[in-house]
């Protein structure tokens, strides 16, 4: 989220919070695709991380992008910490360790999504090249220690950095040393949201396995294929994970709200200043817990929107659904991740097929799979068969969904072309992480330095 909202509309009831989520429902013809991707910035001279301040820096990249694109700077205590497209169609934001993120515009088809990503990367390279900066597209920082990793001057991150060690063992690694690709998708009603939420929650471990690309930590193999996936197993379990309530047959907007109300807050923003609120839940906030601590202590819709953005379930509900399970990866995967989910969720027949496939998957089974995938990826077992076999079934459903959508480019090719990187994973029976490990033990001669050249944007 590039900019925290400041909507001053007062919140007076829980029903208003539920109505806010429900207001995201829209006709199917208005469904859009919003893709986000993060990448690590590094100096090509020595593969070191790029600091925020300086002549060659993250700040310089943002200023250069602002001049090149005409996007509006997003400021925090006098520092530029993101950019916003003036009409609201896209943004650039910073993750805590300087990971550079494009939050794409809401687009109608995957051809537009892939074009958007390629254009962004081309412009970014144009700005970065004179500064000696390039970008790495994988899921976990392969070389830098936590101490070596830069810190971005973003107020919400200072609060999170203090809080994370209190609620889990890997929250700081999540913040500073991981990258992801996400896609945001729409729903038409509460029932449609429920179906999509339940299918995508159950299949999120499969996405983690298919996109596994974080096998290195501090210059060595870490024993995992998705270090990022493992990190999310103990980041802040009050606000992250599988979300048991979503497995209920009658799950709805109100259930998500009730869960969110009990999660501790991170902050509220008043007059541009961030107040640490990690000691209260949103429900306590609504009941007056901050009265006497801050002058404007009554909750607003801006506070609620910001709180929703600090919840981290594997599928996050706002006025759309966010698919959060995948590691970052090379540019072709920026197109493959939304293709995978659009094929499953935006075609009625595909959604029904995915729903039927996963209908009786229990919370306990999916949790066990989620726990196995970081180390085993597609070699993990589910109901006595390999996750490879499940992946083949699911990918076939997605491909057929994309073909039925029949959104063609100028050459008459449909969106299923964007699944090619996942087809390659299944054909080789090897994830990107396993490819990198093979290179590490072979051509790379047990060094992670070549990853910066081989997997750069």
TrEMBL record:
Its EC number is 6.3.2.2. Keywords: ATP-binding, Disulfide bond, Glutathione biosynthesis, Ligase, Nucleotide-binding, Transit peptide. Signal peptide: none annotated. It catalyses: L-cysteine + L-glutamate + ATP = gamma-L-glutamyl-L-cysteine + ADP + phosphate + H(+). The keyword Metal-binding does not apply. Coiled coil: none annotated. GO terms for molecular function: ATP binding; glutamate-cysteine ligase activity. InterPro entries: GCL_bact_plant, GCS2, Gln_synth/guanido_kin_cat_dom, Glut_cys_lig_pln_type. Belongs to the carboxylate-amine ligase family. Glutamate--cysteine ligase type 2 subfamily. Belongs to the glutamate--cysteine ligase type 2 family. EgtA subfamily. This is Glutamate--cysteine ligase.
